[in-house]
Design brief:
The protein is of the alpha/beta class and 259 residues long. It is built from 4 helices and 23 strands. The protein has a 7-stranded parallel sheet with strand order 1-4-7-10-13-16-19, with no helix packed on it. The chain has a 7-stranded mixed sheet with strand order 11-14-17-20-21-22-23, covered by helices on one side. A 6-stranded parallel sheet has the order 3-6-9-12-15-18, with no helix packed on it.
Length: 259
Amino acid sequence: MLPKPLRDRVHRVVNGCIQWGWARLRVAGAIAPGTAAAERFGSFGTGSVIAFPTATLYGEPSIHIGTATMVSTWVTLAAGYGPEQSTVPPRALVIGDRSVIGMRSGIVAHESIEIGDDVWFGQEVYVTDANHGYQDPDTPIGKQLGAHEPVRIGDGTWIGHGAVVLPGTTIGRNVVVAAGSVVRGDIPDHSVVGGVPAKVIRRFEPGVGWVRPNDPTGSDVKPLEPTRDLDALARDLELIEALGPEATAEAIEAARARN
């Protein structure tokens, strides 16, 4: 057995070699304009990159990525049901300019997902336009294909860690989706949503500022004092993060009352 000082020296050298090699492998393995992998995509904008290592990538001819967009490591980008499928729409998955997709996220498009410009995803966000049916009790769920419903995510939106965006969702511009939320349906521009299912916690009213609904439907809106809007919004975001999947409108109101 080698003496400890020599073992330590060998470990230091080996560790340095591994780190050096891995750093260069990540650079060499990244997908960027001019690489053979990028040429398989429907379009791949200048300054964009998909970091290495990737997760699942298939249906690249139907995937379009804008300029200056960053897709982090271990991200799944998929168009269609599997590799080499010939019936995928030509623009099944479109990601705009200057967007960021956080690591271990998954975007699975069977028909149509459009992500706008300047959209930021946290880690482990999942977006899909397809679901499984369950109508036949005698057929395994995985073999029952549900309807495809397009998904739209507007410019300037931020989607927090671990959020899920379900088929048929349209998210407006400059929307905050709290971590862990499950989003379905239409989300208005300039709003903050959270919970399972996600509900509007705040929204911006021109001439008034940030307001919050007093009920889950948002039918009774009470303006906030303008000088307190940002502080109150920050407190609400902290509550949403703390409550996680329990962040319903009622739970958030109760937490506000306790604080």
